[in-house]
Design a protein that fits this description.
The protein is mainly alpha-helical and 380 residues long. Helices cover 36% and strands 4% of the residues. It starts with a helix and ends in a 12-residue tail after the last helix. It binds heme C (5 copies).
């Protein structure tokens, strides 16, 4: 494994330097600089001199040992379905920067390519101003953040849940039904709200679109550093009291309403979300036991997340959180609630990306499950 990473790193650097020359702002592109120290296409430059190399190298996009990259090492290649977001050649293929059709991945990608400069920096990548979400909904008029959202958009939508459950009574166990998973870090779907339809949106309710946050802090790259992609903190303090470090971001609060019904309207908006999220899991568990007829447990780290609670103690033990023990008594109502539970769980930045949207989804799932009393909790 070690040796593989070393080779990988060397390849990455070479790739970065090849790409940089000519493709990035500030570099001679007409060959005029020959012999005067200006780099020529194909010429290698040391990693240390590549602008932003250091930032990128410490970012999650360069983290060679992350599961998001190592997952396919055994297979040796990344399938078309996954390559767009888990490799550089897959992304280049998807956006059509390699001359292939845009919007599809035509071939499997090699493992170990990470998400390098070449993914985000090409004429094609720079020209992207629209993103199509898994719902089929398309958001136009975007800037550089369109690149981020091409990957951070999730893999499912309201429509997938509706398609799967069509014709089945709300509280009828559908033996064919399986859990539908938004996938990880779908920040773009949260940010765009109903414009992307990434959460499960109940037919009788209406949902918020792109959050109302004042500009410019409403795009990926105004709130996140360009290349480390760490959330920014300092500029937030201008409008949000008490912001001093990354941990303090979760304490941010503007809304005056009590969304979780606990009477505390000064806790961070992140806590309002967290409390509703916990209540939703409890309601899902009560429903599984009392209505679907099989107790259910959740494990955030084990695929496919929802399992049969064999001993009925409400927590997922090691022998329960296994694929053969996956939950199999889904009713449409339960599936919708579980979908939204996971939507909130897999975007830890949801409170900043679009708190009102996530609060709406959690409220509606709770309200839809029988026997929930939300008391004075207010839906944004
Ligand atoms: C639309 C983009 C997209 C597609 C397509 C996609 N993923 Fe992902 N996936 C992501 C993102 C973004 C993450 C980031 C997770 C993070 O930051 O922790 C991720 C994370 C993962 C992880 C790591 C989870 C962890 O625990 O850290 C695995 C495994 C994974 N994806 C598997 C797959 C598989 C298998 C496929 C194809 C069937 C696939 N992905 C397709 C975007 C995608
Ligand atoms: C995940 C996407 C992504 C990756 C990976 C990435 N960049 Fe960028 N980079 C951007 C975006 C977005 C911008 C904003 C300007 C634009 O639209 O191109 C940018 C801007 C730049 C700029 C111009 C800076 C400025 O202030 O306008 C340079 C130079 C640059 N990147 C170099 C690199 C290098 C070198 C690498 C690899 C080591 C790299 N980038 C990797 C997304 C990325
Ligand atoms: C080609 C697909 C792709 C693009 C484009 C992309 N990302 Fe990512 N991003 C990923 C994957 C895959 C991961 C998970 C990597 C890992 O686990 O280390 C990730 C991880 C992250 C993380 C860390 C999440 C965590 O779990 O810690 C942040 C933050 C992030 N990306 C922000 C951005 C921003 C901002 C942009 C645009 C400038 C962007 N990404 C563009 C695929 C992409
Ligand atoms: C209003 C500012 C804001 C905007 C806009 C924004 N983010 Fe975030 N993002 C944050 C904050 C704050 C966090 C949470 C940081 C924390 O609590 O540690 C976060 C978290 C994340 C995470 C999870 C990081 C982790 O460590 O698990 C990812 C991935 C991410 N954002 C990507 C994006 C992408 C992609 C976009 C654009 C679609 C975007 N963000 C737009 C502020 C923002
Ligand atoms: C120019 C002032 C300003 C700056 C700078 C700013 N915000 Fe905000 N923020 C606001 C306002 C105003 C709201 C309320 C928006 C609304 O009506 O929902 C808000 C709302 C929020 C919320 C939701 C709070 C709630 O109660 O719903 C979060 C989280 C947030 N901002 C995070 C950030 C982060 C992270 C940054 C820095 C990257 C940032 N903000 C920078 C003005 C600002």
């Amino acid at each position: 494994m070690r040796a593989r990473f070393r080779i990988l790193r060397a390849t990455t650097i070479a790739l970065a330097s090849l790409l940089i020359v000519g493709a990035l702002p500030g570099h001679a592109q007409d060959g005029a600089g020959q012999g005067d120290g200006t780099l020529q296409p194909g010429e290698m430059i040391p990693a240390g001199q590549i602008p932003f190399y250091h930032d990128w190298a410490q970012s999650p996009h360069a983290k060679a040992d992350a599961r998001a990259f190592t997952n396919w090492y055994e297979e040796g290649e990344i399938p078309e379905d996954c390559a767009r977001c888990h490799s550089t050649p897959g992304f280049v293929d998807y956006i059509g920067a390699d001359g292939s059709t845009a919007g599809v991945v035509d071939r499997k990608a090699p493992t170990g390519t990470l998400i390098t400069c070449a993914a985000c920096h090409s004429e094609t990548a720079r020209a992207i101003t629209a993103v199509t979400f898994p719902s089929g909904l398309r958001v136009e008029g975007l800037g550089s953040e369109a690149r981020c959202m091409t990957c951070h958009q999730g893999r499912s939508s309201t429509f997938d849940v509706d398609d799967a459950t069509i014709g089945i009574g709300d509280d009828t166990v559908g033996p064919e039904l399986e859990f539908i998973n938004i996938h990880y870090r779908a920040a773009g779907a949260t940010l765009m709200g109903t414009l992307a339809g990434g959460g499960y949106e109940y037919a009788s309710k209406s949902y918020t679109s792109q959050r109302r946050h004042p500009a410019p802090f409403n795009t990926c790259i105004s709130c996140h550093e360009l290349h480390t992609v760490a959330p920014k903190v300092t500029p937030c303090a201008a409008c949000h009291e008490g912001v001093s470090g990354r941990e303090s971001l979760a304490l941010i609060r503007k809304s005056k309403a009590d969304h979780d019904g606990d009477g505390d309207v000064t806790e961070g908006i992140a806590a309002e979300i967290e409390h509703l999220h916990q209540r939703l899991l409890a309601a899902i568990q009560a429903y599984g036991r009392d209505i679907a007829g099989t107790p259910i447990v959740y494990d955030a780290h084990a695929y496919p997340y929802f399992f049969i609670d064999l001993n009925g103690n409400g927590t997922a033990e090691e022998d329960e959180a296994k694929v053969p023990n996956k939950y199999a008594s889904w009713t449409p109502r339960l599936l919708r609630a579980a979908y939204n539970y996971q939507f909130a769980a897999k975007d830890p930045g949801a409170y900043a990306h679009n708190a009102p949207y996530v609060l709406q989804l959690l409220h509606d799932s709770l309200t839809d499950l029988p026997g929930t009393d939300l008391g004075g909790a207010s839906r944004p």
